[in-house]
Design goal:
4 strands
Length: 269
C-alpha cells in the first residue's frame, strides 16, 4: 500500500512541477490547484498514515482540503514574498501563486479526485467519493443528519449500504445525507421487520437523491416529503383519493432508486 501511495504521490508531484514551470492560464491557475490536494494527501499516506483506517481514508482528505484554504490565506498575505521564497521553486509551487477565491472550487474538485483515486483501492469502490460528496456538496442535509444522529445516539445504529442507519422510536423514516432513520422494530414480528427493511431501502433512495441534488435537496425533496408525510391536509388528501404514500414524485423516485441500488424491495404503499 505504501509503495502505491508513493508512486501516486510522485506522479502527481511531477505533474505539479511541469504545470508550475511550463504552463500558464487555466492549467497553471486551476489544474495545479486541483492536483495539489491529492498530492498532499498521498504524500502523507506514503510517509505517515500508511495504513488504511477511518482517519486516513475519510478524515485526512478533508484535512488536506482545508490545508488548501490555509494556502489561500497565506497567498492573500503574500507569504512567499515575505519569506523570500522563489515562486518557481518547488516550495513556491506547492504554496501556490496568487490569492483567488475561485481556487476553493479547484480544491473541492481535488478532494473529489482524491476520492476517485482511492476508489481503485477500496472494496466498496466509489464509497470514499460518495462520503466526500455527502459532506461537501450535500453538507446541509448531512450536518442536519449528524445533529439528529447525536440527538438519538442512544438508539441502535448500524451501517447500511455505506450510510449510518439509526433505528429510532418513531413509526416513520427520514433520510438526511449520510444518515437514515428507520422505524422501531418488534422482535419476533416478521411483518414488522419486513416493513422496516422496505423503509430502509426507500430512505436509502433519498440518499442517492441527496448526492445528485446537494444543497437543492432540502427544497426539491426534503420540504415536499416532510409536508406530504406529516401535514394533516395531505394525509386526508391521500385517504380521500386513496393514493399511496409514494404517489408523490420524490417518494416514488426514492423507492425506485433504492430498489435499483440495493436490489431489495422498497415501500410502495
Amino acid at each position: 500500500m505504501r509503495a502505491r501511495h508513493t508512486i501516486t504521490f510522485l506522479v502527481l508531484l511531477i505533474l505539479e512541477i511541469i504545470i508550475g514551470k511550463w504552463t500558464t492560464g487555466f492549467i497553471r491557475g486551476y489544474v495545479g490547484d486541483i492536483l495539489i490536494i491529492p498530492t498532499i494527501y498521498f504524500l502523507l499516506r506514503a510517509v505517515i498514515f500508511t495504513k488504511n483506517s477511518i482517519f486516513s481514508v475519510y478524515v485526512l482528505p478533508f484535512i488536506c482540503y482545508f490545508l488548501g484554504w490555509v494556502a489561500e490565506v497565506l497567498q492573500a498575505i503574500d507569504i512567499t514574498g515575505i519569506l523570500g521564497i522563489e515562486k518557481t521553486s518547488l516550495l513556491g509551487i506547492m504554496m501556490g501563486g496568487k490569492y483567488d477565491l475561485k481556487d476553493g472550487l479547484a480544491y473541492l474538485v481535488g478532494l473529489y479526485l482524491t476520492g476517485v483515486l482511492l476508489a481503485f483501492e477500496s472494496d466498496n469502490r466509489w464509497y470514499p467519493l460518495r462520503v466526500f460528496i455527502h459532506w461537501t456538496w450535500g453538507s446541509p442535509q448531512t450536518f442536519a443528519g449528524l445533529f439528529l444522529y447525536l440527538k438519538y445516539r442512544r438508539c441502535p445504529h448500524r451501517y447500511y449500504n455505506g450510510v449510518v442507519r439509526t433505528v429510532w422510536d418513531k413509526n416513520g423514516g427520514i433520510s438526511m445525507g449520510m444518515f437514515i432513520f428507520t422505524p422501531y422494530e418488534t422482535e419476533g414480528d416478521e411483518g414488522r421487520q419486513e416493513y422496516c427493511e422496505k423503509v430502509a431501502v426507500h430512505e436509502f433512495g433519498h440518499t442517492i437523491q441527496a448526492l445528485l441534488l446537494g444543497p437543492l435537496y432540502p427544497f426539491i425533496i426534503g420540504i415536499p416529503s416532510i409536508s406530504w408525510g406529516s401535514i394533516p391536509y395531505f394525509q386526508k388528501f391521500r385517504d380521500k383519493k386513496q393514493l399511496p404514500y409514494t404517489w408523490l414524485f420524490c417518494e416514488r423516485w426514492a423507492s425506485y432508486w433504492g430498489e435499483k441500488a440495493t436490489k431489495e424491495k422498497a415501500i410502495w404503499d
